[in-house]
Design brief:
By secondary structure, the protein is of the alpha/beta class. It has two domains: 13-136 and 335-355, 3-Layer(aba) Sandwich (Rossmann fold), CATH 3.40.50.720; 141-330, Dihydrodipicolinate Reductase, domain 2 (2-Layer Sandwich). The protein has helices at 23-34, 84-96, 139-155, 172-196, 230-243, 277-285, 298-301, 332-355, and strands at 13-18, 39-46, 54-57, 60-63, 65-66, 77-80, 100-103, 133-135, 157-166, 249-256, 263-271, 290-292, 307-314, 321-328. Helix 7 links the parallel strand 12 and strand 13 (307-314). Helix 3 runs parallel beside helix 5. It is globular.
Length: 356
């Protein structure tokens, strides 16, 4: 199936959300309402244990359906935020039933027949959607892309070195609950540690290799190619695909930090052509979805649509180098908002096609 436009899209769409009861699914619901997305009907899907649960939207309660057994016919757009295995199993079935799937998992990002899209960066990738599936990038990659694209356009990005500071909500509600628990367990112990050097008992490590409370975790999930974690490889591969730079040199160190919301990245960039810090700031000040600020930080980014960039300065260790710091809300722009923006691009294209 080659999809080049959406002649079947009505003025108002029949929308579904798979994973509607999770952190990102709940954020999608809020954003659909906030942005007045043209919804004719809304269906919500989750695992069997959430089936039958009422979820409020637009003044009414919608009962959650079991995604594994549901009939997806009649839907126009379905947002997926239920994990890779669910997406691999269900997304093709939903697309075959006639919907465009916008998937937030890692399941389809590396598929050459699935566009990987950041709305402000490469919407042209939506020109052809062979499988009826569009992929959302990893929330860490997402924060960097609106910043990197205008700089690459101006000077030709050659190398990307990234160290990340990733919030626990990137690991879902479980990550949030683990940090809450360890903060509660360790508050008194950390005060003693500062005063006397006593050990702090945060309990056994959960989800990550060491406790996250009052700590940082530099081994973020499983190891893969050449000792890089899967999170670091996602950053490399997704940056190459979105920026259309298959040979981009990328090295990342992805670190989980005891912050609830907001992923941050320290970036060292090398370009093919000269680009001063002043020129970069001028470009970033006009870039869609980007706010230049003196001290970008997760607290300021939480609940905000754009990504924030600052600390822009020359990197003297390489020719044509820049260093900068980027922060974005990993649940909002890093996941739910970009998915909704992709749908908005598709809708606006259909309106323009019909008006032509």
């Amino acid at each position: 199936m080659i999809v080049t436009h959406f002649s079947t899209f009505p003025a108002r769409l029949n929308v579904g959300i798979v994973g509607a009861t999770g952190l990102v699914g709940s954020m999608m619901l809020a954003l659909l309402a906030e942005r007045a997305f043209p919804i004719a009907s809304l269906r919500l899907f989750a695992s069997a244990r959430s089936a039958g649960k009422p979820v409020s939207f637009g003044g009414q309660d919608i009962l959650v359906e079991d995604a594994a057994t549901a009939d997806f016919s009649g839907l126009d757009i379905v947002f997926f935020s239920a994990g890779g295995s669910t997406s691999r199993g269900l997304a093709p079935r939903v697309a075959a039933a006639g919907a465009i799937v916008i998937d937030n998992s890692s399941a389809w990002r590396s598929d050459p027949d699935v566009p990987l899209v950041v709305a402000e960066v490469n919407p042209h990738a939506l020109d052809i959607i062979p499988k009826g599936i569009v992929a959302n990038p990893n929330c860490t990659t997402m924060a960097a892309m609106p910043v990197l694209k205008p700089l690459h356009r101006a000077a030709g990005l050659k190398r990307l070195i990234a160290s990340t500071y990733q919030a626990v909500s990137g690991g879902g509600m479980e990550g949030v609950e683990i940090l809450q628990d360890q903060i509660a367990r360790g508050a008194d112990g950390c005060a003693a540690l500062a005063q006397q050097g006593d050990a702090v008992d945060l309990g056994e490590a959960r989800k990550w290799t060491v406790p996250i409370g009052f700590n940082v975790v530099p081994l973020n999930y499983v190891l893969g190619e050449e000792g890089y974690t899967e999170e670091e490889l996602k950053l490399r591969d997704e940056s190459r695909k979105i920026l259309e730079l298959p040979d981009l040199a990328v090295s990342g160190t992805c670190v989980r930090v005891p912050v609830f919301t907001g992923h941050a990245l320290s970036l060292n960039l090398q370009f093919e052509r000269p680009l001063s810090a002043e020129q970069a700031l001028g470009l970033l000040g006009q870039a869609p979805g980007v706010v230049v600020t003196e001290v970008p930080n997760p607290l300021d980014a939480t609940g905000k649509d754009p990504v924030f960039v600052g600390r822009v300065r020359r990197d003297p260790t390489v020719a044509h180098g820049l260093a900068l710091f980027v922060v974005g809300d990993n649940l909002r722009k890093g996941a739910a908002l970009n998915a909704v923006q992709i749908a908005e691009v598709l809708v606006s294209r259909e309106k323009a096609r019909q008006a032509a």
